[in-house]
Amino acid sequence: MLAGLPVAGDWEFRIWFLDDEAMAEAHVEIMDVPGTTDVITMAYLEEPEALFPGDMGLELLVCVPFAEREGAERADSSFANELMLYIVHGCLHAAGEDDLDDISRQSMRRREAEVMAELSKKYQFGQIFPYK
Questions:
Q1: Is the whole model's pTM more than 0.85, yes or no?
Q2: How far apart are CA 76 and CA 78, in angstroms?
Q3: Which of 14, 58, 59, 101 counts the highest number of beta carbons within 10 A?
Q4: Rounded to an integer, what distance in angstroms lies between the CA atom of residue 112 and that of residue 98?
Q5: Which of 61, 53, 40, 72 lies closest to 12 in space, CA to CA?
Q6: pLDDT tens track of the chain, all 132 residues?
Q7: Which helix (DSSP H) or strand (DSSP E) does residue 54 occupy?
Q8: What strand order describes the sheet that includes 39-43?
């Protein structure tokens, strides 16, 4: 609900946690872009009422080593925060947000911050995604 995804219906949401190699392969196969990335969103929710019970509604491909690197490099983040951010980012894409230009990127960052703040009130990301 926080991200604006449809909650009615009996559709599946799957998250795949990949390494750099698998993510780079997926990035080329799905988006025709070389190299790894943080998250790829594959949403099938344009008409949620058309999904049959158990149909795949949303898949996120999340790159774990990308989160490790970013979490270590950014003073305001961590491995767990990065993973949660990538999931939030992917859900926002599935809900119709994009970040292709400066204005939409600002909107996406604002929505990410809102959703992350609400989630952090209830969950400790480090317990969900403990680091080694």
A1: yes
A2: 7
A3: 58
A4: 11
A5: 53
A6: 688 887 777 889 999 999 999 999 999 999 999 999 999 999 998 887 788 888 999 999 999 999 999 999 999 999 999 999 999 999 999 999 999 999 999 999 999 999 999 999 999 999 999 986
A7: none
A8: 12-18, 56-63, 39-43
